[in-house]
Amino acid sequence: MRSLVEDLRRVGAIRSAAWAEAFASVPRHIFVPEWYGQEADNRGITVWRRHDAGDRDAWQAAVYSDQTLVTALDPDTAERVDERAWTGVPTSSSTLPSLMAQMLEDLGVEDGHRVLEVGTGTGYNAALLCARLGDRLVHSVDVSPALVEAARGRLASAEYRPHLTAGDGQQGFPGHAPFDRTIATCSVPRIPVAWIEQTRPGGTILADVSMGIEGGLVRLTVDEERRALGHFTTTTGRFMAARSDAHAYPRPGRAPYAPQAGSRSASVTATDIRAHYPLRLLLAFHLPGAELVYHVDDETGAMSLQLQRRDGTWARAPIDDEHTTTVTYGGSADLWRRAEAAWQWWNDHGRPAQDRFGYAREADGHHYAWHLPDGHRWPLTP
């Protein structure tokens, strides 16, 4: 454990003595008795291979390294391919320790603070909060009853007994508010009203807001008018989406792709978009509700970066073209034009980093982002 703490301090993830002591006192291996490593089979299909204490040295080396470990798969998509491997979609993980440390530091807890954690998962983050604040001040919720009960047992074995419950974390922890701090280890399309209502005025919410093309961590303060206002943090990291079902994610409906309508040269390339996280965040502001995916041509195998909407509109640019690009599109030609407008804006304003953008969730449910230096605003409702 001490070597992990030293690693986290060296990279600047742990900045305070209090969190260094918490990480040093909580044994991560108790909370990750097994995990799934990503591989590709001989057909190139992703499979998840289970690892546990049967190979103790490799298991402990992984547990005490700075990596995210997948701990559960969606049973609706999981299919066993051999004795220890499955296909499927991950539904729970033990987060990258450096990301956890940075978020806990960013949360700004103080002695006596009551904390709500959304996304109990393995229970490791709840244990860290208990080590820092004490059991009675920590409240954690997860959509999966099985995960909550497993976490309860692991926490008890490490002598921690926080308040745990199973339920939709987007509804918070009813009956136990108010909280001084709310931290979520799942992503949401906008900050849920329950989190704002259950966080006291002046309190902090730290969460991953997913806006389609990109998303990021926001640190927000709740005010007396029940608004949550703040900014994207210098800490970057993404989480699995929050869900209301204990096992699986809903599958959003999408119209079939529109027929190809044309092609043209463009000023922003796939390489530009892939290389710059703040640019992708800005694209999400310009194109709320759109998605950014990889597209593989069925005939040639060529890979492109594709913007798309649920109405079937799309625009794609080849990944291997670093300096100039030809964009192909179906439906409206507007998608890539708006990406070019975002690219132009970002360059004209000195390529601001993500912490130069604010985020707000109003009491009426509307949410928006803005450029902190000049106040330029982007509504985020599709």
From TrEMBL:
Which GO terms are recorded in the biological process aspect for this UniProt protein?
A: methylation
Q: List residues traversing the bilayer.
A: none
Annotated GO MF terms: methyltransferase activity
Annotated InterPro entries: PCMT
UniProt keywords (A-Z) are: Cytoplasm, Methyltransferase, S-adenosyl-L-methionine, Transferase
Please indicate if the UniProt record lists S-adenosyl-L-methionine as a keyword: yes
Kindly provide the name given to this protein in its UniProt entry.
L-isoaspartyl protein carboxyl methyltransferase
Q: Which organism is it from?
A: Streptomyces niphimycinicus
